[in-house]
Amino acid sequence: MMDYIWAFLVGGSICLIAQILMDKTNLTPARILVYFVTAGVILGAIGVYEPLVKLGKAGATVPLPGFGYSLAKGAIREVEKYGLIGAFTGGVKATSAGIAAAIFFGYIMALLFNPKTKN
Fold first, then answer.
1. Is residue 53 part of a domain?
2. Membrane spanning segments where (predicted)?
3. Do the beta carbons of residue 76 and residue 90 sit within 8 Å?
4. Cβ 77 vs Cβ 84: under 8 Å
5. Model-level pTM?
């Protein structure tokens, strides 16, 4: 039960930060997305995000900083294995399943529903 509570608290805190940034600043959601992914990469690379992942599990890995964390972790692992070329391939390997799933399910939803642009 505590895993669920910690996942909720960690994931909810990340979402709360994003909502505060959207409400209190002039940052667009796209910029916040980029900042969160970049923060995940930086915090993952220096080892700060790992304890948060161990504590919050899916609450830390599912939001956008978790994607950045996965990129950094994959790149670091591949650099240790293959050298400099791993910096380019590691992030792609580590996140390819998530990216493929997002594209696949996005396509399926576009077929099932009638997507419209915002006015």
1. yes
2. 6-23, 32-49, 94-113
3. yes
4. no
5. 0.80
Chain Cα centroid distance, residue 98: 10
Tracing tokens 């650099």 back to the chain, one arrives at 79
Q: Assess whether pLDDT exceeds 90 at residue 119.
A: no
Give a three-class secondary structure readout of the chain: CHHHHHHHHHHHHHHHHHHHHHHHCCCCHHHHHHHHHHHHHHHHHCCCHHHHHHHHCHHHHCCHHHHHHHHHHHHHHHHHHHCCHHHHHHHHHHHHHHHHHHHHHHHHHHHHCCCCCCC
What are the two backbone dihedrals, phi and then psi, of residue 47, each rounded to the nearest 5 degrees?
A: 85, 10
What count of residues does the chain have? 119
Mean pLDDT of 86-94: 91
117 belongs to a structural domain: no
CA distances from 22 to 11, 19, 25, 91, 108 (A): 17, 5, 6, 28, 29
pLDDT at res. 116: 76
